[in-house]
């Protein structure tokens, strides 16, 4: 079965059992124990005791937000929070019917008329380019929220011949962000927030096989590898573009439609311990709107409003600068290939 939905968090539930490498078993086990303590609803509740409620007390009138995958789950919860505070919301979604329905709901609840839908398939490099170029012609953007994600459980190619998880999670995010950087540099307090996942802690960057052509394909592993790449891109962009505040984040394990459909057994087993969508969205909203967030250095990875390590202890997941350069070069080359 092929599933490609707007995913906001993932768990590598199968990999503990199927992994053949000792190191990856070690990483998965350490990570799962950490997840049970921190990524659950009780983990959120413990962390939230230290949140400053006034951090989200902001009037967003006049600020413009692009949110990919905004019609369900954490993306939709985030769009709602921003609309509630008067921000202009640009929802970037694949399915027109679902997007319009979510938009109507958000407008009705927030009484905010500045909510717009843009139909874009984030797995299509050409469509992402076209959207970014169209958008920056006539609109301003203050904050880009890269939330759309995809976990396809079988190796599948897009119409453009790219592996689908990579095309959506990594290349789509790369093209949208880099194409909007000139527009972001023109505004006050520009930010880019990317929804990664704690699952990336189990992966070391593998730049030799970006589209999973070698070995047995494992969708959860591919997803986590893409999430690792997003964290590295965030660090690199932060170093390159000082005028923009970049961050990546982990929403925790939340009860979203995407988790329910792409990981039904995990969802069933964990249901009572999963976070609500609003809990999953909290740090994303905080990074996108609060004055407190931009006091943090640019380029970091956040969980529950705090920057956290991008590596598990002794997990050998650090990449070399050379590999990171290779990743950037490969993405740039692919991106240019599809530029209209
Ligand atoms: C937010 O700011 C706008 C103009 O800057 C103002 O019209 C509006 O009343 C403010 N909203 C709230 C809830 O304070
Ligand atoms: C970009 O704009 C052109 C011209 O207005 C339109 O035909 C096209 O559908 C737009 N593409 C996207 C992805 O928004
Ligand atoms: C941008 O606005 C101009 C003038 O209103 C219009 O001609 C053009 O088609 C718009 N571009 C897009 C991509 O919507």
TrEMBL record:
Highest taxon above the source species: Eukaryota
Listed name of the protein: Dehydrogenase/reductase (SDR family) member 12
InterPro entries cross-referenced by the UniProt entry: NAD(P)-bd_dom_sf (IPR036291), SDR_fam (IPR002347), SDR_member_12 (IPR052992)
Pfam families: adh_short
């Amino acid at each position: 079965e092929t599933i490609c939905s707007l995913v906001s968090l993932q768990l590598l539930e199968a990999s503990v059992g199927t992994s053949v490498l000792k190191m990856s078993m070690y990483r998965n086990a350490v990570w799962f124990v950490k997840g049970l303590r921190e990524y659950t609803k009780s983990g959120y509740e413990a962390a939230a005791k230290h949140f400053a409620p006034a951090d989200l007390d902001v009037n967003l009138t006049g600020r413009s937000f692009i949110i990919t995958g905004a019609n369900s789950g954490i993306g939709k919860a985030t769009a709602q929070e921003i609309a509630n505070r008067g921000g202009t919301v640009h929802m970037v979604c694949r399915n027109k019917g679902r997007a319009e329905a979510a938009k109507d709901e958000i407008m009705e609840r927030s009484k905010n008329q500045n909510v717009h839908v843009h139909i874009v398939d984030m797995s299509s490099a050409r469509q992402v380019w076209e959207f970014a170029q169209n958008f920056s012609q006539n609109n301003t953007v203050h904050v880009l929220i890269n939330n759309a994600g995809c976990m396809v459980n079988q190796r599948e190619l897009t119409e453009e011949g790219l592996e689908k998880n990579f095309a959506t999670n990594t290349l789509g995010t790369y093209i949208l962000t880099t194409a909007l950087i000139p527009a972001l540099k023109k505004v006050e307090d520009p930010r880019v927030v990317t929804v990664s996942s704690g699952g990336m802690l189990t992966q070391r960057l593998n730049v030799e096989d970006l589209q999973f052509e070698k070995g047995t394909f494992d969708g959860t592993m591919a997803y986590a590898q893409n999430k690792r790449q997003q964290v590295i891109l965030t660090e690199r962009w932060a170093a390159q573009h000082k005028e923009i505040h970049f961050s990546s984040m982990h929403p925790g394990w939340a009860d979203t439609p995407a988790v329910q459909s792409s990981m039904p057994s995990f969802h069933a087993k964990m249901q009572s311990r999963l976070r609500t969508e609003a809990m999953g969205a909290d740090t994303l909203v905080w990074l996108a709107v609060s004055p407190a967030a931009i006091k943090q250095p640019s380029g970091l990875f956040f969980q529950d409003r705090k920057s956290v390590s991008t590596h598990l202890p002794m997990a050998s997941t650090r990449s070399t600068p050379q590999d990171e350069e290779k990743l950037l070069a490969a993405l740039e080359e692919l991106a240019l290939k599809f530029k209209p």
